[in-house]
From TrEMBL:
CDD domains recorded: Radical_SAM (cd01335)
UniProt remark on cofactor binding: Binds 1 [4Fe-4S] cluster. The cluster is coordinated with 3 cysteines and an exchangeable S-adenosyl-L-methionine.
Protein name, per record: Probable dual-specificity RNA methyltransferase RlmN
Record carries keyword Disulfide bond: yes
Domain of life the protein comes from: Bacteria
Miscellaneous section: Reaction proceeds by a ping-pong mechanism involving intermediate methylation of a conserved cysteine residue.
Documented EC number(s): 2.1.1.192
HAMAP family per the UniProt record, alphabetical: RNA_methyltr_RlmN
UniProt key word Iron: yes
Organism for this UniProt entry: Helicobacter cappadocius
Record-stated family: Belongs to the radical SAM superfamily. RlmN family.
Alphabetically ordered keywords of this record: 4Fe-4S, Cytoplasm, Disulfide bond, Iron, Iron-sulfur, Metal-binding, Methyltransferase, rRNA processing, S-adenosyl-L-methionine, Transferase, tRNA processing
Catalytic machinery residues: 90, 347
Subcellular location: Cytoplasm
Length: 373
């Protein structure tokens, strides 16, 4: 019988402390994994030999292999990973210029680094505009596989442990359809003895599984919430996101109203702008009304075309008009800069490679039409 080793990245510090005595060893292991990015137990010199052997026999560090890296003209890098069971998925490393004012009003420019992580191989939601959806659903990623994306991206880019990075769960998959593993990953990533990425710097983007938004809120993780709204009436939203038939706009808005929002933060509403579909000012007006009473900000995303897509990218002037309308009415609104579009690393352009071309997925697209969660 082949014994399957446990993934060392699956554990929070206190869980490792329970598993490996004496308890101070867990902190040492955390230091090797998350500060030194070590991926070989035998090199963890301050651990006794017997412990290194035990770890080697029972746990696995390298659970993901980088099989391809593509670098965009704008510096965005897309990583293709392979899992131990031979599946593949992508993560994206995005560098953005960030401008802030100091207390004297001087503009300080810095670089903001964001990791866009996958939470599933494929996705069940089946949105009409999304390339990930075309491949159907394969499986959830484990918490360790989510955490390891960060470690490998930090290691591959020589990012010093103390450098602040942001996490967005906006790669492949619907994070709230894998809530248990995603919430565990959020906790592991925020461990102060490890990567120390506070939940406040992690954002979950969801297509709107209303009861799971409520459940996430009750967990009080301190994580940021982004809602993929994309439409202001149910008929259109159901065409774009089939799951809207089960959880309509009002149910999503009601769930958001129960979500604990940090005093200095807002819930982000992502609005995918598609030419001649939802880019008119009447929609902007309805959006304003819909978000009334919510601490919200709107992020407009220009539709990114992909192979076989039936929609068109909107005119930038039209998107600006839409944004200006909302801003003038006092609603915070930004237009998302598309990063990595030349390497298909932008929103909605990620998809499993190789595998799905030869193997039919377990669940076809759009299986979330009914309340099955
Ligand atoms: N499943 C989650 C998170 C991953 S998708 C969600 O849907 O929110 C991350 C974002 O990319 C979502 O807002 C999604 O609607 C958007 N997106 C999907 N396809 C896109 C496309 N072709 N162009 C631009 N954005 C897209
Ligand atoms: Fe899934 Fe998000 Fe793509 Fe919709 S947009 S199919 S929820 S990954």
């Amino acid at each position: 019988m082949i014994e399957i080793k446990k993934n060392i990245y699956d554990y929070r510090l206190e869980e490792l402390e329970q598993l490996l005595q004496p308890i101070f060893r867990a902190k040492q292991i955390y230091n090797w994994l998350y500060i030194k990015y070590e991926n070989d137990f035998s090199k963890m010199q301050n651990l006794p030999k017997e412990m290194r052997e035990k770890l080697e026999n029972e746990y696995q560090i390298k659970n993901l292999e980088i099989i391809q890296i593509q670098t965009s003209k704008d510096g965005t890098k897309k990583y293709l990973f392979r899992t131990n069971d031979g599946l593949s998925f992508e993560s994206v490393f995005i560098k953005m210029r960030d401008k802030k004012q100091d207390e004297n009003g001087k503009i300080i420019e810095s670089e903001k680094w964001t990791f866009c992580l996958s939470s599933q191989v494929g996705c069940k939601v089946g949105c009409a505009f999304c390339y990930t959806a075309k491949g159907g659903f394969v499986r959830n990623l484990s918490s360790g596989e989510i955490v390891e994306q960060v470690v490998q991206l930090k290691k591959d880019n020589d990012i010093p442990p103390e450098k602040r990075v942001n996490i967005v769960y906006m790669g492949m998959g619907e994070p709230l359809d894998n809530l248990q593993n995603v919430s565990q990953a959020i906790k592991i990533l925020s461990e102060l003895d490890g990567l120390s990425i506070s939940a406040r710097r992690q954002t979950i983007s969801t297509s709107g599984i209303a009861p799971k938004i409520t459940q996430l809120g009750k967990m009080e993780l301190g994580v940021q919430l982004a809602i993929s709204l994309h439409a202001v009436d149910d008929t259109l939203r159901s065409q774009l996101i089939p799951m809207n038939k089960a959880y309509n706009i009002q149910s999503v808005i009601s769930a958001v109203k129960t979500f604990p929002v940090d005093a200095r933060k807002r819930v982000m509403f992502e609005y995918l702008v598609i030419k001649n579909i939802n880019d008119d000012l009447a929609s902007a007006k309805k959006l304003l009304k819909l978000l009334d009473g919510i601490k919200a900000k709107v992020n407009l995303i220009l539709f990114n075309p992909h192979e076989g897509s039936e929609f068109q990218r909107p005119e930038i002037m039209q998107v600006r008009k839409f944004a200006d309308f909302l801003t003038n009415k006092g609603l915070l609104c930004t237009i998302r800069e598309s990063k990595g579009i030349d390497i298909s690393a932008a929103c909605g352009q990620l998809r499993e490679k190789n595998i799905l071309e030869t193997q039919s997925p377990n669940v076809p697209r759009g299986t979330f039409k009914n309340k099955e969660l």
